Structure formats: C-alpha cells, structure tokens
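Table 4 source record.
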Amino acid sequence: MGYDVLIVHGSFGDPFGNWQPWLFQEATKRGKHVLCPHFPGPEEQSLDSWTRTLNSYREYLSDDLIVFAHSLGPAFVLDYCVQNSLNVRKFVGVVPFYDLIDIEEFDKINSSFFVPEIDLTRFKALCPDRNSIYSDNDPYVPRSHCEKLSELIDAKTHVVSGGGHLNTGAGFTEFPLLLDYID
C-alpha cells in the first residue's frame, strides 16, 4: 500500500501544527492514505536532512501522489522531485517561495533549500497539476516571492485576502479550500 497524499510542514514546524493535522484527518476520512512526516528542525534543518527523512518513505509514495506543502515545504518538494525525478499527480504549495526572505532567523536555516543549480522548471514535466495558494498580507514571505515561484513552475494561483501566513497565527487550524484539491 502506498501513500497518495503527502503533507510537508515548513520551518520551525511539525506535523501537529497549523492546518496539517486537520488536513490529515479530512483526507483520511476521504479514503486517502496520508503521510505527514516530522522533518528535522530547526537546529538539524537542512535540505540534506529533510531529503534523508523523505527517502525513508520513498518506496511507499505512489505515482498518484497529491502533495500539500506549507511555507518552506514547497521549496523542499520541488528540490526533492527534481533531484529524484519523482512524479506527482498534484502539487499544492501554500505560501510557496524559493528565495531568502530577509528575516535572519529563517534565512539562516532555510538557505540550503535554495539550490541555484536545480532547474525548477523541470518540475512542470514531473507534475501536471501545479497550484499555489498565498495571501495578500503575509508577514514573513513577500507576495512577490510567491508570485515568482508560481510563475516559474506555471502554477494556478489562489490569493487568500487577509490570510497572513496561512498558519495557526492567522487562524488557519482548518483550511477548507484545500479540500478542493483532494479528489
């Protein structure tokens, strides 16, 4: 049995925060096999440590995979898929970005995920259904960063008015819009 939904948290995150536990439960109710790993962080957070974590599940990821990733999560998913030629059916990046955000505590632990040698446009061939969701008032990630990455991978975009970082701090312990992407 393989997983058909993957949920990836962001920096300083875990599978138990924000809307991730709610989405896990909702997808499970819909008959999906859901994987929501706990990636190392923040002291151990790096592209390499997150790659090792996901590699331990690689044989269980189906070709019909739907990926939901928040904040730094989309950068990791793109890196991982392109470097490992992993095909996914659908990608939903929530506050996707692939650049430093000029907040030292985040940039310090996120920088290894932004690999200039990786051609992120290759992700388009690995995933036919690419989506980005972000807000118009994120206090951490500039909207221009989300727009830049969304354009690069040719993702359909959805802007949530007043949504902040689309996390618990902005009131997103549930995120019904995400259910539109589970089919």
